[in-house]
Amino acid sequence: MGHRIRLDAGIVIAFQLGSHAVLHDGVVVLEDDRVVHVGPTADGPVDETIDLRDRLLTPGFINTHTHLSGSPLDKSLIEDVGKRQFQYSALPDMLPARAAANDRTMMEACVEYSMVELLRTGTTTVMEIGGIGDFVADAAERTGLRAYVADGYRSGHWYSDDGRSVRYEWDEAQGMRDFEAALALVERLRGRADGRVQGFLSPAQVDTCTEELLRASKQAARELQVPLALHASQSVFEFDEMMRRHALTPIEWLDRIGFLGEWTILGHALLTAGHSWVQFAGDDLRLLAESGTAVAHCPWVFARRGVMMESFADYVARGITMTLGTDTAVQSMIEALRWAAVMGKLSKRQSDVSTARDVFDAATLGGARLLHRPDLGRIAPGCKADLLAWNLRSLFMVPLRDPIRNLVYSAQAEDLLDAMVDGRWVMRERVVLNADERAVADRLQREGERMWPRMHVGDWAGRDVDEMSPLTYPAFDPGVG
Length: 481
Description:
By secondary structure, the chain is of the alpha/beta class.
């Protein structure tokens, strides 16, 4: 028998008969990295007992779509701006300038900051799509996060040279070389941190990858038994481009080439046939459901640009595996839960859909289903001890009748007190144990100040950062009375 810990919790979101269930005054017993008992009482010797009777114990959240090496530098940059000719997407206009101004030092600062931000806001398992996978793996291993890491690759990229249209520049040979490098990363990460850090494959976007590259990716993912992630149906210009090329929606084309499937996860899958922004007939949701393809829904990144999924409730009703991700700043699963619920209601104009249960299931059970990990996303015997402990007595969590509704609609980051991954505490009393929160925040500030003056280099018109993203208010002028 290994090291045993008994957790006495005020409320436990346990797992029973295929569903989460609420257990008041619950006891959870851990042995090393696993849960071995959940119930109202427990017998037998333990090595340690921890009093969490003032806390709500939930499974950790599975964040299925992030870009840790860049997203923190989106903050105070891409909000409140957008061009109608790009349907308010920042992809062809703002992000190329940010990417050109970025460098390895900035990317590493973003990753180190992200580790802290993720743990402080509920992520215990993250899927990261970036370009410095080995560094991300090192950071995750050091901080204790459970991580699936991919280096993205593509056959070409989009850009704008006039601020009005989106163009594509292709280098298929480079895409195949980057694909081989991504495969090598998956192999390097096998068995990393006792399996806590693993690799997966992520061709970048449906419109920037050739059919050959996507077919090769699907075959490799099948052979390696790793997840396969792709951005698809995320922007109007992408949807229109795929229609121009194939007279098919992005999802119809992916179905035709055999890319969809139970190991496949589509980032966003937002602008599907029938969405009001694309006005095209079809049934993309049926293709997703029948193929077992999962969706990484990142509501906040789109909501702040005036776009929403239509509707989360419909995806759930069709039986699609729905998961939640954060994508960009802020990288908070608390916010992802809330915005998924609220925007889902707004899009249907109904209050009884996109419920707290729906979004909590997406953040836990949906992610576990995608990863083929029945030992994640739930608190049950045999499952990994990836746990969150929330303050039941906080200003924002009282009065408490339904803990999941309070968590989804009212909880704040400060209410998350403790986090555990693989049976080890990674945060206690809101302090991330294996990172210096102040140091990573200060470093990110310095790197932002170094990046902003460089953004004109990658902008199609050579605009400076204040032209691309005007400040909310002008600077105070002491000479004005």
